[in-house]
Task: inverse folding
């Protein structure tokens, strides 16, 4: 009030928390109707189901009292799926005629996959808006090929030594190519931090394998899939085998989720929009594991009924740990003009629904 | 009149505003009543209603009106003479009856898919699989088992020769003929014990322990007939396909192909596969019985061996605990069925 001639108030940062306002019961209705209509229409409705699901989750994602929105047209997704199914059928028929056709499909997939990745990311970004302004994805085909093929191969060829770096390349590709109203997202972080996470996860892995090797050895016999014995061919696998598989699954998921979450925190937590608005992410790796594992167990025990609540629960926790430290009231963004979004690949990608999970 | 926020064209900048119909025009005005935008009703796009999501009205100039007042927007659409095609979907998504109907339908169809769809698809896939794939799978499986669990056979040469002769004899009864099968003898050891299994390419593996357990040639012939049936009917490949069908179906239905959801689908996949394995065993028993009868032997010979096998696996430690083979309550049923076919 009294500071005459002070700097404009826009410089004072203000932190907004993300929040998820969806409700499991409400989503259950949407989900089960989606499922029933998809089956009744022999899959055709799945395009509408996909759009409704994405709209429900984005529309319930709220920042500073404004919701995100999703605008994709189901018909475009349907066309894309039809083309994707056509490709799959062509693939299967040609393989059935002659396995030599694999020589042709292999390299084609190599070219197809980066294109699908870029198309899918662009399609979803452009169809997502916040406060009347759209997102966009500007990554290139070459960038995707590097992030999803070249670097992972380098990572493997170096005996895994460069896998954390490959992971960073992928996160940079994903985040740094997204824009909002034409303004870039930018993340940057030390390779050392990502190496630390991988080394910790590896240590946990080795610990588990040592313990498991001692326990599981006796049950290895049960793992062969096409074993058919005359005397005991039917009935259930023994409870011990089920337990062993369950424990192994749980540990695999827990460590994997922990790793992914830690990296997510670093990658997103160092992201700056337009050079001044800073994203924050403080998810707990073990809490995420807990949510995902209990979600799986509850979904299996309820024969799938719990699935909508599981998804809502996950979204709620994830978003409750994220924030935006804004240097303005975010009034300054304006939509860029896109070329019409007619590229077929954007819709094909929808079929494969590539899940990057960052 | 609906209250909400008006976003200026192509911008995140907004003011509190009201939307109301003026003849066939949609007018957006600020709280003082100043007009901010006005368009023909047909030129605006109103988002479909879904749950409690905020509604938006996209304006042709890139402006946008947003409001949480769903009923207000529906009334506005009516006043403007606009259709409301999305209303039905939203209605059924919130109606208890429709949800119950959808749930019942999903349950019935899932059951039908697991019970009838999966075996039918697996059979079609198994038939379409080129023999080279079956050969590759068989070679890898035997290789893996040789390294992990099986040991070389310790049977005497004359016993081995007799086993091979029995295989050739039973194979006469099979459409594949003696050339379609190949017998591998192994020592099962503690992990496998008395056992036999078939691989998709016609390889039949039998353990020394099973050989020792049999009291006459006809019992062995019964086992070989049973395993040959698995090969003829491509049961091995079908089981592989069945186990992978559940993860695939879940991915299609939920649209979720993350690693986590795939891992979660492994166990249900195995359970469904074992559920159908019962039918395969029964089929193989019936085929074995037919072969034995054609060769002038009694199907009850196989039943005798099954009973002894049950005792040998479960006798010492009890079925439920230490042995992963576990107890199989339907061994009795299989024995009874084979005995019945003997008459």
Result:
């Amino acid at each position: 009030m009294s500071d005459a001639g002070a700097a404009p108030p826009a410089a004072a940062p203000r932190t907004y928390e993300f929040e998820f306002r969806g409700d499991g019961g409400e989503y259950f209705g949407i989900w089960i109707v989606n499922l029933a209509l998809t089956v009744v229409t022999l899959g055709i409705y799945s395009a509408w189901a996909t759009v409704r699901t994405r709209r429900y989750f984005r529309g319930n994602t709220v920042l500073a009292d404004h919701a995100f929105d999703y605008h994709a047209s189901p018909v475009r997704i349907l066309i894309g799926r039809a083309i994707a199914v056509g490709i799959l059928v062509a693939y299967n028929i040609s393989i059935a005629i002659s396995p030599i056709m694999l020589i042709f499909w292999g390299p084609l997939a190599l070219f197809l996959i980066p294109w699908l990745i870029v198309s899918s990311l662009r399609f979803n970004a452009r169809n997502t808006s916040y406060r009347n302004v759209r997102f966009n994805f500007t990554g290139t085909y070459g960038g995707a090929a590097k992030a999803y093929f070249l670097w992972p191969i380098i990572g493997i060829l170096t005996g895994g030594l460069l896998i954390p770096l490959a992971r960073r390349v992928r996160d940079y590709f994903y985040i740094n190519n997204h824009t909002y109203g034409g303004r870039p997202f930018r993340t940057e972080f030390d390779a050392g931090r990502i190496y630390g996470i991988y080394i910790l996860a590896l240590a946990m892995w080795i610990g588990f394998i040592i313990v498991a090797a001692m326990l599981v050895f006796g049950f290895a016999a049960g793992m062969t899939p096409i074993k058919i014995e005359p005397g005991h061919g039917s009935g259930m696998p023994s409870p011990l085998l089920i337990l062993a598989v369950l424990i192994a699954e749980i540990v695999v998921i827990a460590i994997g989720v922990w790793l992914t979450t830690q990296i997510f925190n670093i990658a997103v937590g160092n992201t700056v929009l337009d050079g001044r608005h800073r994203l924050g992410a403080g998810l707990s790796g073990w809490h995420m594991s807990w949510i995902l594992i209990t979600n799986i167990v509850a979904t299996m025990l309820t024969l799938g009924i719990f699935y909508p609540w599981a998804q809502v629960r996950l979204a709620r926790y994830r978003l409750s740990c994220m924030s935006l430290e804004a240097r303005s009231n975010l009034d300054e963004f304006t939509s860029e003009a896109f070329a019409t979004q007619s590229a077929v690949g954007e819709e094909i990608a929808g079929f494969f629904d590539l899940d990057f999970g960052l | 009149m609906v209250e909400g926020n008006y976003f200026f064209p192509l911008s995140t900048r907004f003011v509190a505003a009201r939307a109301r119909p003026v003849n066939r025009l949609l007018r957006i005005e600020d709280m003082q009543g100043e007009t901010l935008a006005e368009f023909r009703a047909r030129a605006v796009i109103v988002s479909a209603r879904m749950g409690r999501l905020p509604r938006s009205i996209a304006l042709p100039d890139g402006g946008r009106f947003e409001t949480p007042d769903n009923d207000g927007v529906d009334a506005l659409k009516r006043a403007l003479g606009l259709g409301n095609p999305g209303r039905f979907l939203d209605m059924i998504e919130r109606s208890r009856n429709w949800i119950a109907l959808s749930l019942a339908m999903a349950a019935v169809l899932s059951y039908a898919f697991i019970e009838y769809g999966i075996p039918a698809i697996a059979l079609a896939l198994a038939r379409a699989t080129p023999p080279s794939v079956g050969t590759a799978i068989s070679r890898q499986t035997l290789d893996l088992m040789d390294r992990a669990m099986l040991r070389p056979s310790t049977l005497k040469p004359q016993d081995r020769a007799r086993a091979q002769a029995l295989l050739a004899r039973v194979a006469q009864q099979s459409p594949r003929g003696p050339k379609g099968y190949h017998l591998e003898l192994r020592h099962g050891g503690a992990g496998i014990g008395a056992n036999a299994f078939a691989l998709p390419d016609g390889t039949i593996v039998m353990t020394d322990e099973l050989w020792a357990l049999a009291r006459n040639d006809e019992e062995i012939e019964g086992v070989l007939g049973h395993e040959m049936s698995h090969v003829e009917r491509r049961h091995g490949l079908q089981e592989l396909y069945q186990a992978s069908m559940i993860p695939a179906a879940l991915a299609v239905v939920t649209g979720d192909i993350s690693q986590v959801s795939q891992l979660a689908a492994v166990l249900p996949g195995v359970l469904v596969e074992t559920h159908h394995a019962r039918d395969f065993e029964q089929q193989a028993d019936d085929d074995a019985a037919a072969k034995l009868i054609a060769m002038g032997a009694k199907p009850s010979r196989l039943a005798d061996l099954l009973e002894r096998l049950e005792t040998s696996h479960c006798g010492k430690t009890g079925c439920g605990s230490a042995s992963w083979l576990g107890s199989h309550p339907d061994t009795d049923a299989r024995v009874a069925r084979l005995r019945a076919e003997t008459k």
Notes: Residues 316-329 of chain B have pLDDT under 50 and may be disordered. Chain B is about 55% helix and 15% strand.
